[in-house]
């Protein structure tokens, strides 16, 4: 895993952990808690389109932040 990939994983994980909302990434048939750095590290960068499922009291803000982070790191999202 390169430096850019590690940076993306850490930034996405740290941002997710600032929210009370549940943030789950769907990749293929797998569902991974974005607040889990281990789960995130084995999920990202597999040339997939990612779908985020965000629910909770601060979900609108979480969606905006996650969308921006994924775009910043060139990770394609669908349905957010």
From TrEMBL:
A Pfam short name: PTS-HPr
Residues in HPr domain copies: 3-72
Protein's recorded name: HPr family phosphocarrier protein
Signal peptide start-end: none
Source organism of the structure: Paenibacillus sedimenti
């Amino acid at each position: 895993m390169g430096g850019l990939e590690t940076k993306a994983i850490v930034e996405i994980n740290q941002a997710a952990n600032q929210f009370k909302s549940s943030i789950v990434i769907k990749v293929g048939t797998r569902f991974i808690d974005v607040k889990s750095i281990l789960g995130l590290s084995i999920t990202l960068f597999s040339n997939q389109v990612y779908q985020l499922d965000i629910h909770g009291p601060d979900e609108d803000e979480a969606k905006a932040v996650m969308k921006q982070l994924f775009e910043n790191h060139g990770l394609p999202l669908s349905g957010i």
